[in-house]
Amino acid sequence: MKIHFPTAGLLLLLVCCQQPRQFTQSADLSEPRPSTYVEEDPDPIYSAHVRTSPFQTPEEEKADFILPPGFEVTLFAAEPDITKPINMAFDEKGRLWVSQSSEYPIKAGEGQGRDRISILEDSNKDGRADKITHFAEDLNIPIGVQPVKGGAIGFSIPHVYRFYDTDGDDKADKREILLGPFETRDTHGMVNNLFRGFDGWIHASHGFSNVSTVAGKDGDSIRMVSGNTFRFAMDGSRAEKTSDGRINPFGSDLDELGYHYSADCHTLPIYQLIREGNYTQWGKKEPNRGFAPTMMDYGLNSTALSGLVYYTDTQFPEAYQNSFYSGDVVTCRISRSTMSFNGSTPQATRQADFLVSQDPWFRPVDIKVGPDGALYIADFYNPIIGHYEVPLDHPDRDRNSGRIWKITYRGQQKTVTDWSRASMARLIEAIGNPVLQTRLVATDELVDRYGSEATAALQKIVNHRRSPSRQLVQALWALSRLEALPKKTLEKTRLHPDPLVRVHLHRILGEQTKFDSTDYEWTKEALVDNSPHVRRVAAENLIRHQDRSMVRPLMQAFLETPESDSHLRYALQHAFYHHASHPEIANTVASESWNEEEAAEVALVFSDITSRVSAAFLVAHLRTNPVSEDRFLPYLTAAAQALPASKIRGLIQLAQQKQPGLPLYRKAIAINAGLTQQDVEWPEELITWNRSLCEQLLEKQAGNSSSLNEAQIDELHYATGVSGMLRLRSTIPQLRQLVSGPYLLEEIRVAAARALMEIDPETQLTFLQDWMTDPENALDFRRKMAQSMALFSSSRSLDALGEGMRHAPIELQETIAALLAAEDEGKDLLIRLIREGMAPARILQRRNVEENFLSGASSAQQESFQALTENLLPISQEREQLIAERVENFEQSAAQVLTGRSLYEQHCSMCHRIEEDGGMIGPQLDGIGNWGLSALATKVLDPNRNISENFRTYTLKLKNGQTRSGLFRREEGQLLVMADQTGQEFSVPKSAIAEQTASTITLMPDYFSTTMNQEQFNDLMNYLLSLR
C-alpha cells in the first residue's frame, strides 16, 4: 500500500504557523544565571606534584571537605573494600559498579593483571556499601565500565570486553572481545566513561596520545588519534566515531534534548559535541572553516579535569539543578557551571565551586548521579596524580587507598527502585519520570527484558494524543530500538507541538542506515522549524546522510542562521561540507547557480576538500569573484593540492594577476605547499617562477646591514628554504652573505646555512665549519652550525664535526657528540676523541648522546661506552643536585616577572601557548604557576625525565642521506609534517623516508641546565609562577 504524504508546502505551513512552545524541562535555560564565582589565588597546598601532607583516614579526609549550606558528604566505600577507583556506573538495580586499578599507571604484563571491576551495594539502606562483589578480576588497568543485562561491558588493556555472568552469581564467568586492540602506550586516558545513550549504543571516550584503529564485526574500521569520542553496538557489530579531536576527554553526560556533553582534561572543561565535529587538537591543522565551536570562554585553572555530570535529578535544590559538576584532580575540588542557550548554542557560566577539599590527596577522577539523586565521587586518593610530571614508578604513588563519597541535600531522601523487578506497567509509567536517568534506565529495561512484548504498550503511548512529551520521547526510542516504529507513526508525531518531541523524532530518523526521499523531505522541513534545536538535529542528520536535493536548503539555512548560534552554523556548514565531499554530489554543488554571497561560502567549504571538482571550482571562483586576502592564499593552496601539474601554469598566472597587494612570494608559498602535498614533480613553470623570486629577494637583501622588518624576515625564510629545496646554485653567494651577517636574526643565518648544505654540501662544509669553531660567535649559533653541517652524513662532515670538538665549550661538545653518536662511523670517532682527551667521558651520559650512541651500536662500541662511563656519577644525580641548588637559591620577586616573561618569549613561546598567545607544539601553559617551584624547575632543567608519548620525537633518515628530527604533527596528503626545536613546522614526503625511529627524548631543549644561570632561572620561575 502506498502512503500519500501532504505536500511540502502544506507541511511547512503547519510547522511554521504553530504557536512556538518551550520544550519540556525543569528549568528555563533561555537566560544565563548570574555567576556566583569569585576569583581567588589557588592555595599553595595544591601546587606540589608529590603532596607532602600526611595520609589521612576517610574520617579525617571527610572533615576537610567544604560544601554549600544544607549539603552533606558521607563515605560510601573505602579501602580495604576497594582500591583505586577510576570509573563508575549504576545498574538497573541501583548498584554501583566500579573499575579500580592498583597497576596504574604502569600496565601489567600480559596475563598478569590484578585489577578488577566490583559491584557495590547498600543492602541495609544505611548509606554505605555493605555488600561488595568482585565481578571481574585479573584485569589490566580497567577504566570504562557499563553494566548491561547479564553482565557488563568494560575496558581492560587492550580491549573492550563483554563480560558475561551466565549463572547469576554476580561474577563474570565468560568474556568476549567486542573491540580492539586499542593502542595503550599512554595509560592515563585510554577507553573511558562508557554510557548508554538514548540510541541504546554504548558511547565512550578515547584518551590522550594513543592512536587506535578498531572495527566492529562488520569490518568497517575507525581510526582515532588521541582525544575522540565514539560509540559501538552492544554486540560489537559496529563502531562509529561521534567526534574527532580534543586532547584527553574524560567525562560525559546527556541532557533532555539528547545533546552529548564531554569534559576534556587539557582544553576546556565542557564541550557540547556536534555529531562528527572536528575539534582542536595538538598537531592538527585547522580547517579553513575553523574547528568546531566551544561553549565556554573560561577554564577551571587546571588541565586535570576528570568526570562530568549534568544534574537533571531533583534531590538537590532547584538552584543546584541543571548544573554541570566537574572534577579537578589537581586543585582537589568539584566545580559547578550553569548553562543557557542562544538558539541551539549553549553558553556556560561559572558558579562558585561546589566542593573544595583541604586534603591535597583528594583526587575526584569520576562523578556520577546515583538513582537516589546523590552525587557520587570516585576519589583516587593519592599524593601523586600526574602522569608525566612525576615518574611512573615513583615509590610514593599510593596503590591501595581509594574512597567513594556521596553528596546529598539534607532532608530530601529518595528511595532507590530495583527496576530489574519492575513490571511492564511500572516501567511504562517510569519512562515519563521527571528524572532523565530514570527514564533512560526504564527504557533500557523495556527493550532488554521485555523486548517485543512491550511493543503494544509503547504503541499505545505513541498513538495517544495526550501522552506526556517525555514519555512519548522514550516510547519512540524504545520502538525504534525494537525495530517496531513504522513510518506512519513517525508521520503522526513529527508535527508535535513540543519541540522536545520533534528533536528526538529527528534524532531517531537519523539513526537509519539510509534515508529515502520522504526522510529528506521531512529533514528539509525541519531545517526551517521554529525551534533551533530541531534545526540543529536536522543539520546533524545531514552530516551522515547526503542527497543532491539538500544542497540548496542547507545553504539557505546556513545564511539565515545568526552568527550567535555558532553550533547550528557549524552543523549546517559541516553538513554542506559532507555533501560537497560526496563524489556524486560534488558536481551538483559546483555547477549550481550561486549568488555572490553563496558562492563565497561554497568556495570556503571546497577549500577544505581535496578533489579535482573542488580545485576547478576554486580556480574559477578566484578568477571571477572578489576574494579577501585572508582567503586568497588558502584557496591557492587548496587548488594546487588537486590540480594536475599541467594546469599549475594557469594557477600561477592567476596568482600573479589577482590580489596585487599580496607579495608574489607569498602566493608562491601557497601554490608550493599545495603541490608538494601531491608528491609529484614540479612543472618547469613553477620552478622557474620560484627561482626568479628567490634570486630577486636574496639580491635585494644582499649587503643590507639594517635591521629587518617582519616582511623582510618572511621573504628570507621563503628564499632560503626554496633555494635549498630546489638546489639553486645561483643563490650560493647571497646565502653565504646571509650566514656571514652578524646583524641578521640567527634564524635567518641558520636557514641560509641549511640551504647551503642542501645545495652543495661538500663545498660549503668548510665555510660552515669556520663559523662553528669561531669562539667569537654566540654559542647557540655555533651549535646550530654544527646541526646544519650534519644534515648530510659523510666521512668528511663527521671529521669536520669531530674537529670542532677540540677546545669547544661543553654545550657545543654535547651537540656535536649527539650528532656523531647518531652515525656508525661517528660512534667510533666520538670514542676516539674522548680517549684522546678532547671531550669528557661524562658527555656520553647526556640523554640525547647516550640514546643515539646505543641505538645500533656494535658489541665493541657498547663495551667502549661501558668502560668509559662505569665509574661516573649518573647524570640523573648530578641534575637532581642542580635542581635542588636552583630551588634553594630561588628568590621570589615581582620585579623579575617582566624579565622572566622576556626569557619565556625568547625560548618557550614558539612552542607553548598561554591563553591565545604562542605556539601549539607543546602543552598549553595556562595555570602553570599552580605546579609550584619544584615541579617547574624539574621540567625546565630536566625535561626528559618524564615525557608524554604525544611529545616524543622521531628521527627520519631520508633516502638522499639527510637526517631530520622532530615532533610528529600530522599527515597532509603525501607529506609527513613535523616540528623542530624552534617550533617551526617542516614537511617531508613520505616517499623520501628511508627509516623512521622513535626517540626517548622530547622536543624541549635539554640545555637549560648549562645555559641558564641562577639569576635567569629566578627570572623565568617568577614569571611562570605568576601564571595562575
UniProtKB/TrEMBL annotation:
GO terms for molecular function: electron transfer activity; heme binding; metal ion binding. The keyword Heme applies. Residues 895-1028 form the Cytochrome c domain. The keyword Repressor does not apply. Keywords: Heme, Iron, Metal-binding. InterPro entries: 6-blade_b-propeller_TolB-like (IPR011042), ARM-like (IPR011989), ARM-type_fold (IPR016024), Cyt_c-like_dom (IPR009056), Cyt_c-like_dom_sf (IPR036909), DUF7133 (IPR055557), Haem-bd_dom_put (IPR013427), Membrane-bound_put_N (IPR013428). PANTHER family: LARGE, MULTIFUNCTIONAL SECRETED PROTEIN (PTHR33546:SF1), LARGE, MULTIFUNCTIONAL SECRETED PROTEIN-RELATED (PTHR33546). This is Putative membrane-bound dehydrogenase domain-containing protein.
